[in-house]
Write a structure and sequence with these properties.
Blueprint (H helix, E strand, L loop, with lengths): L3 H10 L16 E4 L2 E5 L12 H14 L7 H5 L2 H14 L3 E5 L2 H12 L5 E5 L4 H9 L3 E5 L4 H8 L6 E6 L11 H10 L3 E5 L14 H4 L8 E6 L9 E5 L1 H10 L1 H4 L6 H16 L1 H21 L10 E7 L1 H13 L2 E2 L2 E2 L9 E6 L6 H16 L1
Parallel strand pairs: 2-11, 4-5, 4-6, 6-7, 7-8
Antiparallel strand pairs: 1-2, 3-9, 8-9, 10-13, 12-13
Helix pairs in contact: 2-12, 4-12, 5-6, 13-15
The structure holds pyridoxal-5'-phosphate.
Length: 383
């Protein structure tokens, strides 16, 4: 058992102590913290929709109409017209037969794995998967193996002798590195071995693909069986919640069996209404994605000139590697002195020796703000 005082002292000594910021504003390009206005490169509100007037208005109208709480779980009496309409719109957007809302992405991943996996089944997952997929695997009684990051060839070797039902799980866009999973190969391997593939597109949905349909659209694919798509609504959609998209029988099985769906209160219907407004903008306003891509390209070109250690990422997640936790923390502190907010990400969120600044961009940013970040990073690098 952890003794709280000792645990905290140990964390401080290793530069792993985490502290929360208190924001006095929406999570926009600029945020208010401790009475100061800071330029923020931390949020996952990739399209700048969290405070969009249409989304806020839909939220307000939803609350006026349905109240602020769902009042019950989906299977009791919490499943409202707003949830139902959103599910149909999300299925249409994803290009699948059906979609099912979950209260969070974390719960969606737990729900899918635990609903489908039985004792003696097998799970294979990418070593750098998000914590929610790691915990999802642990919650099942299946045998869990991890394969080296994005290494479909190694996974193929690991799968070769396996004759059991199984699930392959991967982030589609990796949350701390910003790179992508080899989805086409993973789909092929899952099909070949009679397994399912759970692809978590928390960071791709809304952002990638011409129409914002995410990583699959980006790669010219659609999420059909064996694929199960999970995507979140708290990032590019700017709201809250998550959905799983797939064939009708899969969705119906989740309704019957996914404990994180059944034994929890439904999302507030007003959140579903806000998400419907957000989905309309995601679909209609391709300029947000184009602007975002241009910002990322501008940052990468500038950062390469500065000789910063970037990763192979074409997404709005652009880590700058500092190796040691104290170096990353110091860089984050110096940027803060320049009025810029970028978090230092340390183990165990990322592997030992890969502490980093995790820079994220949003369509709410302007080019001049990217330039300000680059200037500040040049100063941090010299120091
Ligand atoms: C954020 C995230 C989740 C969790 O989604 P929430 O809705 O915030 O619980 C799951 N997977 C990945 C890859 C994420 O980045």
């Amino acid at each position: 058992m952890k003794i709280p005082e000792q645990e905290l002292a140990r964390r401080r000594a290793r530069h792993l102590y985490r502290e929360r910021l208190v924001l006095d504003s929406a999570p926009g390009a600029e945020v208010r913290v401790d009475g100061a206005t800071l330029l923020s490169f931390c949020s996952n509100d990739y399209l700048g929709l969290a405070d969009h007037p249409d989304v806020v208005a839909a939220f307000r109208a939803g609350a006026e109409r349905y109240g602020v709480g769902a009042g019950a779980s989906h299977l009791v009496s919490g499943h409202g017209r707003a949830h139902h309409a959103l599910e149909e719109e999300l299925a249409d957007f994803a290009g699948t037969e059906r979609a099912l809302l979950f209260s969070t992405g974390y719960m969606a991943n737990l729900g899918v794995a635990s609903a489908l996996m039985e004792r003696h089944d097998v799970i294979f997952e990418d070593r750098l998967n998000h914590a929610s997929l790691i915990d999802a695997a642990r919650l099942t009684r299946a045998k869990v193996s991890r394969y080296p990051h994005a290494d479909a060839a190694r996974l193929a070797e690991m799968l070769a002798p396996v004759r059991k039902p199984g699930l392959i799980m991967t982030d589609a866009v990796f949350s701390m590195d910003g790179d992508m999973a080899p989805l086409a190969e993973l789909v092929r391997l899952a099909a070949k071995h009679g397994m399912r593939l759970l692809a978590d597109d928390a960071h791709g949905i809304g952002v990638l693909g011409k129409n914002g349909r995410g990583s699959f659209e980006h790669l010219g694919m659609t999420p059909a069986p064996p694929t199960i798509l999970m995507a979140t609504l708290g990032k590019a959609f700017g709201v809250f919640g998550a959905f799983v998209a797939g064939e009708a029988a899969l969705i119906e099985t989740l309704i019957q069996r996914a404990r994180t769906y059944i034994y929890t209160t439904a999302l507030p219907p007003a959140v579903a209404e806000a998400t419907r407004a957000s989905l309309r903008i995601v679909r209609a306003e391709g300029w947000r994605r184009e602007h975002l891509r241009a910002l990322v390209a501008r940052f990468r070109a500038g950062a390469e000139k500065l000789g910063l250690a970037l990763m192979d990422s074409a997404t709005p997640i652009q880590p700058v590697i500092f190796v040691e936790s104290d170096k990353a923390l110091e860089a984050s502190r110096r940027l803060r002195e320049h009025g810029i907010l970028v978090p230092a990400i340390r183990p165990p969120t990322v592997p030992e020796g890969s502490a980093r600044l995790r820079v994220t961009f949003s369509a709410a940013h302007q080019e001049a703000q990217v330039d300000r970040l680059l200037e500040a990073l040049a100063g941090v690098k010299r120091a």
